[in-house]
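Team,

Forwarding the record for the chain on the shared tracking sheet. I've put the sequence and predicted structure together so nobody has to dig through attachments.
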Amino acid sequence: MEYLDFELPIKELEDQLDKCQIIGQESDVDVSATCKQIEQKLEETKKEIYKNLTAWQRVQLSRHPNRPYTMDHVRALCGETFLELFGDRGVKDDKAMIGGLGKINGQSFMIVGQQKGYNTKTRQFRNFGMANPEGYRKALRLMKMAEKFGIPVLTLIDTPGAYPGLEAEERGQGEAIARNILEMIRLKVPIISVIVGEGASGGALGIGVGDRVLMMENTWYSVISPESCSSILWKSWEYKEQAAEALKLTSADMKKQKLVDDIIPEPLGGAHYDRDTTFKTVEKYVMKAFNELKDLSTEELVAQRMDKYSKMGEYKE
């Protein structure tokens, strides 16, 4: 397990507990009472830390290297039923954007999402979860295929942003994202979007227009990252914590502003502490959202989606 800077008190107590248990195993000394005291202190420390997280600490948790990525969720939700589909039929297959058909609780879904890597080699292969235009065009191709066959769409968002390279701009990055937003707003099947990690800028919005948008508890959703915001406003990354607070990017902030529909709770310590519970909770919320949408007519579905996004940003004196 890797630990973030604010988790170091937890690491110290867990190390103490391990040493105490080893002493008990290797000698005749009864250490059960001491171990119990350390366990109690550990639980209290965890609650104290994780119940009072700052916005920046939640950003750090969303990037935790042990956190489940999109494909981890797909494998847990769909098992062996997931069939990955490739290519945008124009340029190439973008490895940062994955998509395919899978069944959750017997219900077919077209699943689309950004995939990060878990080590240096796979991070390069997945381009750190930053999709090129062909990635967004692949996503749109799959969503239009789902519409053709009446299959609901599930998008899993985890990206630091769309790839900002020269080649991406030459191939129309902005147009690809804008086209996805236009087509998703009028797609004739239910769309459920879940932010499972980072939800940054247009890179997230390119697959984030949903009838139900759900955020996992320790994720963030914003037009810009705290570091980039800090570098623009203060010409330095040193103020990223202040920027994170000012951006109001946490799940609680997003729910309060009515920009997302619900928050998916995570186990104490984050999604990586108890993956099985995390996957079951995500499945429960996804199926709940689907059951709320499945009986709506096409006209009602599209009208409600358009109305939902039209109301965002309204301001009254």
